[in-house]
Every structure is written in structure tokens, then in C-alpha cells.
Amino acid sequence: MGIETMPVRFHYFDLKMVPLASQRGKYTSSSLLKACITEINRARKDDHNAIVLDRNHKNSKELKRELFISTIAIKQPENKYKGTIHLIRDNKNPMLVDRETYKLAPMNEVKNGSMIAETTHFYIDFSKEIPLVCCEFNNDGPRISDIEYYFRQIGAKVLNLSYSCQAERRSSGDIKTFLKNLNDVINIKIKAKPSKLPYLTNKLNESFIARMQGLSNTIENAAIKVETSFRAPGLRKTKSIAGIAFVKRVLGKVTEEEEIIEALEDFSVIYDSNSGTQETFNLTGSLVEFTVDCPLTKGRTLESKQLFNLANVEFDDYINRTNQSVSS
Asked: How far apart, in whole angstroms, are the C-alpha atoms of residue 18 and residue 10?
């Protein structure tokens, strides 16, 4: 029997930190992030504890979303920081399933104050002015928005050095360029899983999305896809003000909160550009990503050393290709 593996997907993000006015000239994005890393490691070494932050602490109606980074250290000779962030699940335990009979049983082994934690791996390159993060996509665990929040809180609340930390997703289709080039909307396609629609309805605050949720509730389905056209064949061309406004509102909120992209299966727009050509913008299909097959341990967790080695090959290749395109 061969070694069991699991596909692991990664995305790229620029992580920008902004210093307080009193710290301008003293700190850059890179030095602020390194200061946060130093503090995280100091707490582990000197206080023998982790810095645990609850992302939902301001909302008593939400379940806790407690996060902590257990390890983050420079990896030589690759010259990259290798980290793991964890999401504590203390609301309820998952069930165990027998792989032969598929019978379920409670996970009684978790006791004596122990809790389950979902783990996300991430790596940071500091070769440029803005740190570049290569982050595992973990549907059940911490997201890049959690990493962004964690470093923002360390920089602002713990160190009192910065006031902003923003993760900007790398993609082949730039939202700002698209919106600048948008002249008219011809067609929009939106696809999402039913479980994601309440989140999208809340975050986007669009009646169109709310109606998708209502439609999905009428029938049991795996996903719902809606396509709307603003121009019928043979009719005189009339600019769709409503379509343009809708696209701009949705993408404006996407730039503020990266998690919205992760909740969408598809968001594509066929449009007329300012140059008179008909083009297509695909928000979800333009993400810069890669997938590696990582070996599993006997406990069916990802083999972290192997995962880094596999991901780092792709990471280095992406950095080299990006540097070449900039210099050419």
C-alpha cells in the first residue's frame, strides 16, 4: 500500500501593515510584521503561552473564533518564515466515522480540558518591500482574513506600533483595472453553495443575493447558479446603469473583505470595455493558486515538513516568474 496523500491548495497574498503616525520612518510593512513575529515567539518562550485572540469578541451572539499561532520561524536555507495558525473548536466535538462500516461514534478521547484545533499552514517571503504570503486554503480552519486579523491585533493592541494590516489577494484579473475599464455590463453569472448564501446575503447586503438564498431554500440542492443578461439580442444597445452599479458595489465589498471571494463558487461578468471590445472578467477564476499532494502522517494530519518542501518549489517558481515579468 502506497503513502496516502491529500491535495492542498495555496493562494498568494501581499500583507501590508501601516505604522502609526508616531512610528512612520521607523517601520515598514516588513519590519512591522517581523516585530509581530518576534513578539509571538517571545510569548511562547518567556511566558510559556500562546497569544490567543478571539475574532468575534465584540459580538456576543457569535460563537467564539479563537485563534493562535503556535510556531513561526525562519526556515534556512530557503530564507522564508514557516508558520501555523490554529482555530480552536470548543463548541462541540466532531464525530468519528468507521471507514469500513461508516458508523458514527462520539470522539470521547477529547477530554481533561483539551480542545480540537483546525490548523492552517502559511509561509512568508520578505525579499520585497511588501511581505508575500503563501497560504493554505483550509475550508474548515483559519483563513487569510484570520491571519490578517491576528497580525493587525498584535501590531496595534499588543505592540502599539501599527494601525492597519491588510491582505491583498494576488490574481491575474485585477479588480481596479477591470472597474476602470468597465463601460457596460452585458451578463453576470453568480454561483454559490446554499450554506454560503446567508453569509453572502449579510456581507453584500444585496436583495439579488437574498433572493438567491430564498430560492435555494425552496429545494434541496448542492449549489445555486443564477445568470442574468442586461442586453437582449437584436435590441438597441442601452447602457445598464443598474448592472454597472451592482457589479461595482459587490466588487467594492470584495476588496474590503477577502472572505467573500472564498464564499463564491463563481462570479463572472461579460462586459463592454472602454476601448469598445467585449471581454470577460472572472473574479474566482483569476486567482493565482497551486495545489500539491501532501503525504499524511499515521494520525492522518498533513506532514508539515513535506508540505513546506513541496509548496516552496512552487513558491520560489512564482517569485522568480514575478521578478522576471517586472524586470522585462
From this structure: 25
Q: Which residues of 285-295 are buried (b: 16+ CB within 10 A; e: fewer)?
A: ebbeebebebe
d(CA 263, CA 53): 23
**CA–CA gap between residue 143 and residue 260 (Å, rounded):** 11
Residues in the chain, how many? 328
The CA-CA-CA angle for residues 319, 322, 325, to 5°, reads 150
For the chain, domain boundaries = 5-170+288-327, 175-282
The proportion of the chain whose per-residue pLDDT surpasses 70, expressed as a percent, equals 92
What cell numbers appear for 140 in the block?
474548515
> Which residues, including other chains, have CB under 8 Å from residue 141's CB and lie 6 or more apart?
86, 87, 118, 119, 120
Coil vs helix vs strand at 224: strand
Lowest average pLDDT, out of 40-54, 95-109, 153-167, 299-313, goes to 95-109
Residue 176 to residue 281: CA distance in whole angstroms: 12
Measured distance CA(208)–CA(228) in Å, rounded: 11
Instruction: Tell me what pLDDT residue 256 has.
Output: 80
Distance separating alpha carbons of residues 164 and 151, to the nearest angstrom: 9
Q: For residues 65 and 149, what is the distance between their CA atoms, to the nearest angstrom?
A: 11
Other Cβ atoms within 10 Å of 163 Cβ, number: 14
Phi, psi (deg, nearest 5) at residue 193: -80, 145
CB crowding 197-230: b at 16 or more within 10 Å, else e: bebbbebbeeeebbebbeebeeeeeeebebeeeb
Query: What's the average model confidence in pLDDT over 8-31?
Result: 95
pLDDT tens by residue, 206-217: 999 999 988 888
Per the prediction, the chain carries an average pLDDT of 88
